[in-house]
């Protein structure tokens, strides 16, 4: 009764121990290859412009808010849920951040935690609706997508709020300047420690979030519980896991990360747009899926999502540099998602081939004898 | 069997490989019309692969299959259906959300000229088919509200609605209680009388003696013997199957003196019917350290519900007085139960116990992660690996390693992983629900040995089983349930009370109250305070309220008929 899937995985499991331990760190091997391919394509078409450090930094910076969302979404997807609201939550948080800065002149170290708290609160509602009211997470977060966007636009009166606030002397106020540090290149975090300009904060934030959540998922009891709940909720419950808590926690964490991405996104665009983050949830989900997460639950890693996000980032960048129109970029991005999923599950392709072959009445001779 | 006509089905020289595994080589199987051929073998011997080839699941195989002497290619389930071959899988292939009738006619719904489904005709035919199997079920009931035994018969009905000539049954009785097995066997005899050939896979030897005409034994993908059932013995079959004589399937040492006070004592356990399941009406029981107590009863008698109630699965819906290790115990959640030293081997290891896609290690340590914790709530993975390895070794789990997905192990080894998971929590009271269901005889004996060893070490065990020989062989005491009430208590030690034998257990298991009697006792019931819902009458029978009452009647009538026969 061994299915093809089982045996394919068995073969993988027999790979040498070292490789087996390292592979998960890079997500699946296929997505790693994909990353290299896209990188090569960038070098081949736009060599110097592409490899330019500023270009790469900007590319990652541009995507990092979505990357952070993708980490939260990965958590939710592993529990067999989905979070469609992250884009709207991020938009709400970016607007809230801009308004705190613009109207109340709050310092950045107050703004960021407050935004995370706001995001977490929204996320908690998602989780509560999903686990207590038993609303399917797709529906619950779809509703939240709409609710958060509506609140965002109502709060802002449908107008953008700038985050570059000039003081009476015509220069940026102190709080505005430090807020902008969240999203603009140049003199930034860890100045002198790593290069003369330090590290571009969005990149640092994305990497940091990935590391923290990778450790959370792979090293802690909570991480194990997340996988168990996604893999088999009944077994999880009968193993003494508080399934309700885990579900609420992952949605809350996902919301919290959206709240964290908000100020970064606002600083990056130097303003909060009422429609900021629109559609970001799809990029976030795509990154998780390219990274090997399964919407059926129980599968996925932060490392994979990290690679998935990088693939989407570089893809955006390479296509942009080559002046491919936005419309075609969307088509290509969608195709890459399908391609990535098929690559990760070669058995799907084999199965489809066999089914088609049988439908047309001929079994490929190669499959007659060997399995 | 000696007729000159070609056999109904002949499989010749069948071989099949999976990457890295030779599942079958040179296997022959012959089925004559009206014959029941038992297919026997340990898990992993290749029975399921052979039957999947017959059912057209595996498109690529070596060897030939002859139907009435004509070679037939079987490359898809559709091919199999065209040649009158139907298979009832171990894991039933039914859609829980659809009704009984819709399931029976799934994909072959009778339609009108306009293309709409003729629902009434479908339901009438379903009712007739089910009646032929002695099952009285409303055809519109959603399948998810049917019990496993009922689903099994629905699968049979589905096969019968096709013009089936060869019926393959893969462990049809693994989920059935003995009385239901008898009903199924009667159905099978009806089929063979009509010339249908049946291939019957089961691990229960005593069952094969009753139903099979001949038996084919597989071991490690090779045919090790073909015997007429009448000319063989259990001992011989076991030897053919495992390649060695099996000296003791039930290694329970003589009962110990249960001098210690009970580890668990329960008084008046009540549970309202949850989602159409059975309710419990005041059950008293005790389990002492070192004692193995069995729970017997038919499907739906409430055996699983007793275990689940104790384990906190139903939370506060389960009421009663519980004392655990001399302290009051209130089952609230499985997590709390585990902290209080309970562990549950659930009924369905795939659905309830294992995360199949995750590794053996992940599964084994899941309930006991706290033991490997740091103050940061991270997992000490070395310590975890060492503990898991220790358990896997102690249980002789056959696995390529700890990092293999649990879904890749055979049934018996999966069950051992479940046991390892329970034992890693170091339980004082082990609840086991069908601990040896659907696993091969070698693994079964090992699990029995383990139960005995745990009892010797002072663990209290409460075990549910549908196999009476297992209960009689392993338990110090057997409690019999019927319709959520205790109807009998039997002992291993004749000095302490009536001794358990199959007949007395079955009698007690079928000691149903008549419909007239039930409400009377419900009123008299002394334990029923205002807070406790009266049995049958109340309870938050969520959506099943109506369906429930409609079910009680016909089923009961049906059972009475049977016990009379």
Characteristic terms for this protein:
heterodimer, A: 371 residues, mainly alpha, two-stranded antiparallel ribbon, 2 strands, globular, disordered C terminus, B: 565 residues, alpha/beta, Rossmann fold, 6-stranded mixed beta sheet, 34% helix
Give the helix/strand layout.
The complex is a heterodimer of chains A (371) and B (565).
Chain A: H1 4-13, H2 17-22, H3 29-51, H4 53-78, H5 86-104, H6 108-131, H7 137-156, E1 161-162, H8 174-180, H9 201-219, H10 221-231, H11 233-238, H12 243-269, E2 271-272, H13 280-290, H14 302-321, H15 326-344, H16 346-359, H17 365-369
Antiparallel strand pairs in A: 1-2
Chain B: E1 9-18, E2 21-31, E3 36-40, H1 47-54, E4 62-67, E5 70-71, H2 77-82, E6 85-88, H3 100-104, H4 119-132, H5 148-161, E7 166-170, H6 178-193, E8 197-201, H7 205-211, E9 214-219, E10 222-228, H8 234-242, E11 264-271, E12 280-287, E13 292-296, H9 303-310, E14 319-324, E15 327-328, H10 334-339, E16 342-345, H11 349-353, H12 360-365, H13 381-394, H14 411-424, E17 429-433, H15 441-456, E18 460-464, H16 468-474, E19 477-482, E20 485-491, H17 502-509, H18 517-524, H19 545-564
Helix pairs in contact in B: 13-14
Describe what you observe in this structure:
The complex is a heterodimer of chains A (371) and B (565). With 371 residues, chain A is an all-alpha fold. Chain A has helices at residues 4-13, 17-22, 29-51, 53-78, 86-104, 108-131, 137-156, 174-180, 201-219, 221-231, 233-238, 243-269, 280-290, 302-321, 326-344, 346-359, 365-369, and strands at residues 161-162, 271-272. In chain A, helix 5 packs antiparallel against helix 6 (108-131), helix 6 (108-131) packs antiparallel against helix 7 and helix 9 (201-219) packs across helix 10. The longest helix of chain A is centred in the last third of the chain and has 27 residues, at 243-269. In chain B, a hairpin with a 2-residue loop joins strand 4 (62-67) and strand 5. Chain B has 19 helices and 20 strands. Chain B has two domains: 9-249, Rossmann fold (3-Layer(aba) Sandwich); 264-350 and 427-519 and 544-563, P-loop containing nucleotide triphosphate hydrolases (Rossmann fold). Chain B is globular and about 70 Å long. Chain B is of the alpha/beta class and 565 residues long.
